[in-house]
Automatic annotation (TrEMBL), chain A:
GO molecular function: endopeptidase activity; serine-type endopeptidase activity
Similarity-based family: Belongs to the peptidase S26 family. IMP2 subfamily.
Name used for this protein in its record: Mitochondrial inner membrane protease subunit 2
Organism of derivation: Lactuca sativa
InterPro entries linked to this entry: IMP2 (IPR037730), LexA/Signal_pep-like_sf (IPR036286), Pept_S26A_signal_pept_1 (IPR000223), Peptidase_S26 (IPR019533)
Biological processes annotated in GO: protein processing involved in protein targeting to mitochondrion; signal peptide processing
One GO CC annotation: mitochondrial inner membrane peptidase complex
Entry keyword annotation includes Amino-acid biosynthesis: no
Keywords annotated in UniProt: Hydrolase, Membrane, Mitochondrion, Mitochondrion inner membrane, Protease, Transmembrane, Transmembrane helix
CDD domains: S26_SPase_I
Automatic annotation (TrEMBL), chain B:
Pfam short name (any one): Peptidase_S26
Protein role: Catalyzes the removal of transit peptides required for the targeting of proteins from the mitochondrial matrix, across the inner membrane, into the inter-membrane space.
Keywords: Hydrolase, Membrane, Mitochondrion, Mitochondrion inner membrane
GO CC field: mitochondrial inner membrane peptidase complex
The organism of origin for this protein: Lactuca sativa (Garden lettuce)
Domain Peptidase S26: 24-101, 111-154
Family per similarity comment: Belongs to the peptidase S26 family. IMP1 subfamily.
GO biological processes: protein processing involved in protein targeting to mitochondrion; signal peptide processing
Protein's name according to its UniProt entry: Peptidase S26 domain-containing protein
Subcellular location, record wording: Mitochondrion inner membrane
Length: 162, 178
């Protein structure tokens, strides 16, 4: 009887921790890894390193969907909803941006995202502007590995804006 | 019992109580986000499936997460143009489907045919004369889908499930299957 009680107590404790953890990561922010080199040199600067960068993702910006130029955001890939991408917002709604096919106006409620490493990045230059509703959060800090802990700057790219 | 002990007891009790309240709200959040939640449907775009004055419906979050929705399902989707709003529409076609739609049903019969791009869905309101849907803003990425509407719970006269497909001949349902 004693063992059963103890098991159920432990189970209840882990359930509570799980519930609180999921809620906090959903509503306020959490840590997630970055894979691939499309955002190099901001994330994963050295090719073939063993450790991926882990970043802190804040979700307060989702209350009002307020973003600005230069924010690094995580969003679900518009061509495959199970994948997530991390890119930098280059243009917001109403801006004009020059693409391969000519100048494009970013439609209402959308934004134009591009990777920092334009040579190996699958971004808005291929799939066009993305709706802001796809965004999961804004990247604020690199938290792991320790020698790379830093704040992510809001960098405003100069070239490309028409 | 000394004064200090009494205070320590009160503080401990208060912490325990507030933690169980927090747990309760977390449980609500998890249920709402991952299992099912309720939503208020309002406006003319989904007549006759939903009436004008608003109905409260149950929303299933599991099927959209695992890609178990198809043409004919009523879904709630985050509006691509105003990300703070969600709208209720019916899925007409999934990625790769060929859709023929009437561009402007009030004035002409002109139709256009498109192929829904990869990872997108084509959504339309049931009341094609008064709806703002994929015919205006184009196909929407699957990632914007929030959940599948499956049960009306209020008003009580409308209580019941929502059919998977509209009737044959329904103007909103125009899929050309290949």
């Amino acid at each position: 009887m004693g063992t059963q009680n103890m098991i159920s107590n432990v189970f209840k404790k882990y359930l509570a921790i799980g519930l609180v953890g999921i809620t906090v990561t959903d509503r306020y922010g959490g840590v997630c890894p970055i894979r691939g080199s499309s955002m190099s040199p901001t994330f994963n600067p050295s090719v073939g390193s063993f450790t991926d960068d882990y970043v802190f993702l804040e979700k307060f910006c989702l209350d009002k969907y307020k973003f600005s130029h230069g924010d690094v955001v995580i969003f679900s890939d518009p061509t495959n909803y199970k994948e997530r991408c991390v890119k930098r917002i280059v243009a917001m709604e109403g801006d004009y941006i020059s693409n391969v096919g000519g100048v494009v106006k970013v439609p209402e409620g959308h934004c134009w995202v591009e990777g920092d490493n334009s040579a190996s990045s699958f971004d808005s230059r291929s799939f066009g502007p993305i709706p802001l509703g796809l965004i999961h959060g804004r990247v604020t800090h690199i938290v792991w590995p320790p020698q790379r802990i830093r704040k992510i700057d809001r960098r405003i790219p100069q070239e490309g804006l028409a | 019992m000394s004064l200090f002990q009494r205070w320590a007891y009160i503080v401990k009790e208060a912490l325990d109580k507030s933690f169980s309240v927090a747990k309760f709200f977390c449980a609500i959040h998890v249920t709402n986000t991952y299992l099912f939640s309720t939503a208020m449907v309002q406006g003319p775009s989904m007549l006759p499936t939903f009436n004008l004055n608003g109905e409260i419906v149950l929303l299933d979050r599991i099927s959209t997460r695992y890609g178990k929705v198809g043409p004919g399902d009523v879904i709630i989707v985050r509006s691509p143009e105003t990300p703070r709003k969600v709208v209720t529409k019916r899925i007409i076609g999934m990625e790769g489907d060929t859709i023929t739609y009437i561009v402007d049903p009030t004035n002409s019969d002109r139709t256009e045919t498109i192929v829904v791009p990869k990872g997108h869905v084509w959504v339309e309101g049931d009341n094609i004369y008064n709806t703002y849907d994929s015919r205006n803003f184009g196909p929407v990425p699957y990632g914007l889908l929030q959940g599948k509407v499956f049960w009306k719970i209020w008003p009580t006269s409308a209580f019941g499930s929502i059919g998977r497909r509209p009737q044959i001949g329904d103007p909103a349902f125009k899929v050309v299957e290949q």
